Amino acid sequence: MSHSEPALDLERAALLVIDMQCGAFDGRLCPPMPDGDALLSACRSALDWARRQRVPVFWIQHSEPGGPMDGPGFDIDPRLNPAAEEPRFTKTVPDAFEETSLAQALQQAGRSQPILIGLQSDCCIEATARGALAQGLKPWLVPDAHHTWPDQGLSAEALRDQVSQALAQAGVPLIPLSTLYTVTHKQSHSA
Questions:
Q1: Which stretch of DSSP H or E encloses residue 105?
Q2: How far apart are CA 170 and CA 151, in angstroms?
Q3: pTM of the shown model
Q4: Residue of 158, 140, 138 whose CA lies nearest to 149
Q5: How far is CA 89 from CA 37, 55, 60, 76, in A?
Q6: SUPFAM superfamilies this protein is in (predicted)?
Q7: Which of 20, 40, 76, 127 lies 20 to 30 A from 83 at CA?
């Protein structure tokens, strides 16, 4: 990382796991997430890293009556194994900071660098990243740990990459999983 790039400070970081709910993967009310197993694996890796580094994890769940994330689709996918002590926030709009207490919870925990993973790249991931910027936070995005469905004639991968680049241009640093794994408390203090 060059000196001009921002440094991730693990004492200020928090992992936001966004909308990784059963309804995105079960095929009940919408097509299952493309490459869902790969996304779940990437998110599990980010979770393992966060827990090892004692970076707090915050779970975001979308609630939309009658939609894929309703009823049994509301539950966090059990393959991610959320811990009971990790707080959960329910949202009804794409931005996880709107109409929730997420900003206050991050502030109370002394966490100003949320790291975003999950769904849906071109909706809730993008809106939450922009919402974090509007809150005066310094969000980070793991480009290989968020995903979406194909739309607007673009593949899911193309949309995901487009969102990652748009957020990078808006001031959200990208930190791939391979780089995230190398960040430890010792390294974040010496940066």
A1: helix 102-108
A2: 22
A3: 0.93
A4: 158
A5: 24, 17, 5, 12
A6: Isochorismatase-like hydrolases (SSF52499)
A7: 127
SS3 assignment, position 2: coil
Angle formed at CA 174 by CA 168 and CA 178, multiple of 5 degrees: 160
| 6 — pLDDT class (breaks 50, 70, 90) | confident
CATH topology of domain 13-185: Rossmann fold (3.40.50)
Q: What is the pLDDT of residue 66?
A: 84
DSSP class of residue 189 equals H
Local confidence band at 4 (pLDDT 50, 70, 90 cut-offs):
low
**Residue 26 main-chain phi, psi, to 5 deg:** -85, -10
**Distance of alpha carbon 120 from alpha carbon 21, whole angstroms:** 11
CA 52 to centroid of chain Cα atoms? 18
Mean pLDDT (the chain, rounded): 93
Helix, strand and coil in the chain, % to nearest 5? 40, 20, 45
